[in-house]
Amino acid sequence: MSGMKRMVLAAGLLAAGPIGIASATAEELKIEGVGISRDLVCAEGDEVGVYGAENEVRVTGPCKSILVHGSKHTVTFETAGALEVFGSENSAKGGEVENLAVSVDQQTVEATLRAKDGAAEAVVAGVQHKVTLTLASASRLTVNGVDNAVSWALAGGAPAPKVSSAGAGNRVSKRG
């Protein structure tokens, strides 16, 4: 390839910029950037990371973990051992998780908590989150911060959750 062709190709690649990267390993699937729309398929043990802003990611299959970090992402998922939502104004909606962590401000999360063994756990900290949970096993809910709303409903004969809360203006309530 001539020097001129290499320069044109390199310039084109640089101009394209980071539009989203799926790792070549089977263990980590990573989306980084702004305004990316992507479908991902998890295999047991895969970890998904969504970083940046305003990305729309649809995840199918059983993930080990899903991390949403940044702002204004929309993530849907089927199953994850752990779901962590950090940043501002993200939305994560989906199926079952064993451990949930929600932090910083104004996240919207909908999920079913189900533990394989022991109790599933949701920890909500920060400001003005809206978390809607269906509890399908023994569960612990910890809500700290200001003006968070956590609503829950029981499924499949699950017991009422153990709840602890600290802060100001938090609402933890049973639906239906």
Structure, described:
This protein has one domain. Strands 1, 2, 3, 4, 5, 6, 7, 8, 9, 10, 11, 12, 13 and 14 form a 14-stranded parallel sheet that branches. About 10% of the residues lie in helices and about 60% in strands. By secondary structure, the chain is mainly beta. It has one helix spanning about 5-15; strands at about 30-35, 35-40, 45-55, 55-60, 60-70, 75-90, 90-100, 110-115, 120-125, 130-135, 140-145, 150-155, 160-170, 170-175.
SSE layout:
Blueprint: H1 3-16, E1 28-34, E2 37-41, E3 47-53, E4 56-60, E5 62-71, E6 74-88, E7 91-102, E8 108-113, E9 120-127, E10 130-135, E11 139-146, E12 149-154, E13 162-168, E14 171-174
Parallel strand pairs: 1-3, 2-4, 3-5, 4-6, 5-6, 6-7, 7-8, 7-9, 8-10, 9-11, 10-12, 11-13, 12-14
How widely separated are the two ends? Answer: 68 Å
Number of strands: 14
* Uncertain ranges: 1-26
- What profile does the largest beta sheet have? 14 strands, parallel
Secondary structure tally, helices: 1
Radius of gyration: 19 Å
Helix content: under 10%
- Percentage beta strand: over 45%
Total domains? 1
Shape: globular
| Mean of all residue-level pLDDT scores | 87
Q: Which class best fits the helix and strand makeup?
A: mainly beta
How are helices and strands ordered from N to C? HEEEEEEEEEEEEEE
